[in-house]
Amino acid sequence: MVAFLLSAGGWRLPFYAIGAISLAVWALLWVWFPQSRRQQGRSLSFISHFREVGSNATIWYLLGANGLLQMAFIGVFSYLAANLIQTYGLTAGETVLPLALAGLGVIVGGFIGGRIAGHHRRLAFLAIASLICGLLAVLVFSVQVSPWLTVVMAFGVGSMATISWAVLPMLLMELASSSRTTATGMFATSNQIGVFGDAWIGGAILALEGFPMVGFFCLGAAMAGSLVVMLKVRDPVKSVEGMAMGESGTS
Fold first, then answer.
1. Domain coordinates of the chain in residue numbers?
2. What is the pLDDT of residues 135-194, one digit of tens each?
């Protein structure tokens, strides 16, 4: 959408459009969201919930893995249009269809992630998908064959990277117990850390080394996130099942 508006009316038009959409969303939220009454005696509830969530080391590893995987995803889709323009000589208007097709991978990844989120081997599937995402990211910025092949690989990045968007929140909700709202806020923060990390590190790498090294940066982030998932994140469902089997064996 932004690429289309850019080609149609210059660089200011996307800002006008996004600003208008944001104001419309704000108005709808103001009208549709119910008013909540402030409960007395709950001023320290956030601190107590944060203490409960923060005492679980697995949650911190999960948040770290999410931030790393976000870096890999954002790293590809932040610079995909610029790569198509610089490498293949496309105009901003000509990137509209390729970007839309690549973006469909996000929808596919959400569908796949929803199926994997309840699987007993979801962490293994997530780790493998993250590695595939990183490898495809390298190819997106290194292989210069045709823009459509690049789009196909970016589609793969989107579909593999966004599996974590379904699996990790499910794990977080299971780990957070009664502090799910606080954990959700912390998860959103880890998303923004991933965005900031990519803009800072990825932007510096692009300026210094060019697009191919951005791909390797995404691979490194995806590999690190995958390792954290496999080595440090414990599946709460399996932990409960293991405890139940141990108790039955003892009895």
1. 56-235
2. 999 999 999 889 999 999 999 999 999 999 999 999 999 998 878 888 898 999 999 999
Q: Where are the alpha helices (DSSP H) in the chain?
A: 2-9, 12-32, 45-54, 57-88, 96-116, 122-142, 147-161, 164-176, 180-197, 203-209, 211-232, 236-250
Query: Considering only CA atoms, which of 181, 180, 168, 173 is closest in space to residue 233?
Result: 168
CA distance 165 to 194: 13
CATH number listed for the domain at residues 56-235: 1.20.1250.20
DSSP 8-state secondary structure symbol assigned to residue 198? I
Phi, psi of 92 (to 5 degrees): -60, -40
The encoded tokens of residue 55 equal: 């005492």
Residues 138, 88: contact at Cβ < 8 Å? no
8-state DSSP, 95: G
Q: Rounded to a whole number, what is the distance in angstroms from the first to the last CA of the chain?
A: 62
Residues found in the chain? 251
Q: What is the pLDDT of residues 35-68, one digit of tens each?
A: 766 555 555 577 888 888 888 899 999 999 999 9
In three-state form (DSSP H/G/I as H, E/B as E, the rest C), the secondary structure along 225-237 is HHHHHHHHCCCHH
How distant, in Å, are the alpha carbons of 37, 48, 62, 194 from that of 190?
29, 20, 9, 6
Determine the Cα–Cα distance for residues 205 and 184; give it in Å rounded to an integer. Answer: 31
For residue 3, what pLDDT is reported? 87
**Residues 195, 232: Cα–Cα separation, whole Å:** 23
Between CA 197 and CA 191 the distance in angstroms is: 10
Classify 143 in phi/psi space as left (phi over 0), alpha (psi -120 to 50) or beta.
beta
Residues 181 and 134: beta-carbon distance below 8 Å: no
**Distance (Å, whole) CA 143 – CA 206:** 16
